Amino acid sequence: MMEEVKDVSPTLSVHGHNIKVTEALKDGDTLTFLVVSQKLSGTGEYHVARTYDDFEWLQQHLFSQEDVPGIQGVIFPPLPAKAQVNASAKVLKQLGFLALEEWQPYCKALEAFLRQIAAHSILSKNKAVEIFLTSSDPPGRQRIKKNIFNRLSQAVEGMRKEGHKDVDDFFQTERDHNLLLTGCTKTAAEKFLDVVLTEQKIAVACGHFSAALHLCVEPGEDPDKQAFSKACVKLSEVFDSMKKNMTSVAENNLNTLGLGLDLESRYQEAEKEMLFRRTCKLVELEAARKNAEKAKPVKKAAMEEVKKAAETEFEHICGVAKQEIAHFHGVRVELLRQSLVEWCEKQLLTAKENADQFNQHLQAFRGLA
């Protein structure tokens, strides 16, 4: 199965920059995502339905290009954790922002995943990408082998290799920075998620209080009761406006900086995995060199060949990794900047609308006096 889609094609037949995941449809316990992409020919669009198994199928094909030189130096676009209908508290915590708003943020994350793959100079050439975006048949039903990338991350000796001293100052510095940023970004995303969830709770509370105030309205001709009832109705309208405002603030936080921090956090983890794969190859190379030095004459030539192969592979990985890191830093800064700008713009607009609304309420209350 894997060999069928390993051939590379020069370009995709769709525009990679505006691939869309438009909605998530519930089918029992399964979520199906509608992926829409525009044909390069300009003659229409591809509409394909994909489950998470299909996304995993694509990711595994990208991981499995072991015939591509330096592939282990690629920072693979991160696929979000699996979304589940009626998910457990543990899964919801893992998904964070992506589990909110009827899976719309999750669709955005899948969209970013596909766009990053389509824009990648190496990954976009894999035929599996074209099949995923254009084939009417869901590819994820095919059985695929798990490859070395999965095993590496779960290796028993992982912790030992992760702390292995690097021979290249560039990569040692990058590993140190990544370790720091991974922790900081994850914490920032978690804290910001707490803010959004609190804002949603405040919005719900304002809605409940707005409804409760109507219970204070009393019929009758008594002027005091009529004045009190009018005040309750107006105050109810104020709290309903507060509910709508807080809901908008939470949505703005979620759809701008929230998604930005989530993507940043998952990309830092993706870089960490790439750096770890390279460190593992460094350990293998050092072992090959030692074996070649200690080899007996009868095995010397064979051990030298192993060493040369390891050196060549490691050089390819380092070359790709340096390009990937440079690109990664530029992209992550731009994406985070973009999410911050959108965050500020949306919250300023919401604040202005809210101020106008409260001004109207203030004038109404003055009219009651």
Automatic annotation (TrEMBL):
GO BP: any one term: protein transport
Keywords on record: Protein transport, Transport
GO MF entries: phosphatidylinositol binding
Domain PX: from-to ranges: 1-140
InterPro entries xref list: AH/BAR_dom_sf, PX_dom, PX_dom_sf
Similarity field: Belongs to the sorting nexin family.
Family matches, as PANTHER family: SORTING NEXIN FAMILY MEMBER (PTHR45850), SORTING NEXIN-5-LIKE (PTHR45850:SF2)
Name of the protein in question: Sorting nexin-6
Organism annotation: Collichthys lucidus (Big head croaker)
